[in-house]
Amino acid sequence: MRKSILFLILLFGSSSFLSAQNQADTTQTLQLKEVVISANRQPVKLKNNPGALSLVTPKTLSLMPKSIGADEALRLVPGVRIDNQHDGERVHISIRGQGILTENGLRGIGVILDGIPVNDPSGFAPDLYDVDWATVKKIEVVRGPAAGLYGGASAAGILNITTENGGPKPVGGEISQSLGSNGFLKSLLQVGGTKNNINYRVSFSHTKGNGYREHQAFWGNNLYEKVHFTPSGKLTITQIVAHTDYFQQNPEGLTRDQLNNPRQANPDANPFNEYQKTRRNTIGLHGKYRFNRYQDLQVTTYLHAWNYKETSNRAAEYDDITNPGASIQYNLHLTTGTMKHELSLGSDWQNQQIRTFKFESKANPNRVESIDETNLETANVLANERVYQRSLGLFAFYKMTAGKFTLIANLRHDAITNQLTDKLAAPDTATTSKNFSQVSLRTGISYSFSDAFTLYANWSQGFMPPSTEELASNPTGYSGFNTHLIPATSNSYELGARGFIGKKVDYEITGFIMYTKNDFFRFKQSGRGNQEVFYGNAGNSKRFGIEAFLAWNIVKNLTWQTAYTFADYKYTSATIDPVYTDTSYVLTTPPAPGQYLPNSPKHQLYSELVYNYNRFVFSFATNFQSEWAIYTDAKAYNNELDPALYQNWQKGFTLFNIRAAYHFHLCKARGEFSFFVRNLTNRTYMAFTEPDPDGNAYQPGPGREFFWNVSFKF
């Protein structure tokens, strides 16, 4: 930490001196105050948005070293915690501590890709494999509860991801090739263009790597087609077709006594060949019709159809999933005197059907490690079930602007039904149901005293129903729902400011406090294997935090961006449901009041300095995280268990990264060659931890890594 602070002090001092010597134009013109964001379901200028929001720009995206993970794209977004699980694209993401306990996928974070929702009816986003980060144009990140906008899918916030369109020429494109440490390879080909009233883009990428640990190999194929059609001045249609095929071996976490060799896999991972495999197809249509300047209608319809397989040391699970959905939104635009009014009314609908089979796994101690999908399982069927889910959301949104003042307010009602049929059970006990409903509100105001200072305040509610994964993880059997789970609800209060000082500075700082009822925790059940995780309601929690972002064009060709997060997240009351203290099957003691939420460092800092010189681009970045708590288990948290296996506090780390790029022209093509070094000092550190009752909590991070990329745009 001292090295990081010293570096920032030296940087600030030297840059201030340079600034006094050179007041020339900056290399990156900051015009973000004119940017219109759409994550709020109604367009609003970023400058006037009455709530915390981060915009990831093309400039930030262009500096990604591998362009395969959300951790690269969202590195400069405060309030967001990202754990890259296995050096591939499988990640954990939480916003303000919401979603930190999820074993797979994203909880309570609404993910929208080119207008198509990724979340299922329970609000669960299974992964981000459909996103090829090398083709992303911008990302809008709403931080904080936004259930009033998108229901249970946005109890923590929203990722609104927009990919590139085709270029202005009839035919253009890009070819890119990346290589790196640990067998990393990514190949990308995309073609696009504009012809009359049609804009199109088609991309295909192939990614693979061995990972930095044993049994950590991955590969993926991503095909994405996007067509934007404007048949008239009143109608616009966007059509999406996507195919994802992704395979990732799972080395699992390590215990403390296994950390002497952090590159090893957990002893269970290899003989059982533990992995996840996803094969998904998506089609979607998003259209907007403008009746006149006062009224328009937006309609979205889509279908996700996919197969998922996960193997563990206890069971091999096969899922066949069909997830159709649609939304409709009517918008009314009125002006009365100096005031402008926007009113939206609409509905979101989703349906999901899951066919699940689980077979008992067995180990082969003589298994030879290989990058394939063969696994070991018996004919013993542990589960044969069908899950049917449906969600219906009705919403109203109002925005009023009057000069420098902006007001937003939205109201939403959600109804979610979940039904599971156990094909192995007797007819009279075969079906279980869990239904949830909630009304959520959100309101905010902002006042722009000047371009340099806009003050905003926001009150919002979060609604996080148990996700598909959490419900289907039943501690009392291999099939059926966990019927003890109930939704978590939140109330959050924000106060913040943002501003744009000429073309030199862009900043935002937000303070928030959030109260959550019936927050979640994770536990395990005896005899179910160390890969099966279960969930319970822990009681209540309180989150207090400060999020800050600064982008500064210091002098000509020199830019500095930094994001800082202060997080104080604690459980405030214990669970009252006695089932979670039943020692006959639960291996975890629920968290006690005063415990910090796991995997939530009190301090996070990412800082990046970029210098342009002729055709060269150089960047230097530092990533600091302070210590964090590992366990929700009260006994493990308080060091009452075997110290050889359990130690609650994990030390933080500081990493340094460097990147150099050269831009060139070859015939009529524009090219770039780049070189990146991650973890420059080869620091040994823990990437993240999980509150694992078996002690398999530790996920070591990689040492020094090197990556090369060459790309051509034509």
What does this structure look like?
The structure is a single chain. Helix content is about 5%, strand content about 55%. It is mostly beta strands and about 725 residues long. The chain has one domain: Beta Barrel (Maltoporin, Chain A), CATH 2.40.170. The strands form 7 sheets. It has a 22-stranded antiparallel beta barrel.
Layout of SSEs?
Layout: H1 2-21, E1 36-37, E2 44-45, E3 53-56, H2 58-61, H3 70-73, E4 80-84, E5 91-95, E6 106-107, E7 109-113, E8 116-117, E9 124-125, E10 136-143, H4 147-150, E11 157-163, E12 172-180, E13 184-195, E14 198-209, E15 218-229, E16 235-249, E17 275-290, E18 295-311, E19 315-336, E20 339-361, E21 377-402, E22 405-422, E23 431-450, E24 453-464, H5 468-472, E25 488-501, E26 505-523, E27 534-555, E28 558-573, E29 603-613, E30 616-625, E31 628-629, H6 634-637, E32 649-650, E33 653-666, E34 669-678, E35 686-689, E36 698-700, E37 705-713
Parallel strand pairs: 7-11
Antiparallel strand pairs: 1-2, 3-10, 4-5, 6-9, 7-8, 10-11, 12-13, 12-37, 13-14, 14-15, 15-16, 16-17, 17-18, 18-19, 19-20, 20-21, 21-22, 22-23, 23-24, 24-25, 25-26, 26-27, 27-28, 28-29, 29-30, 30-33, 31-32, 33-34, 34-37, 35-36
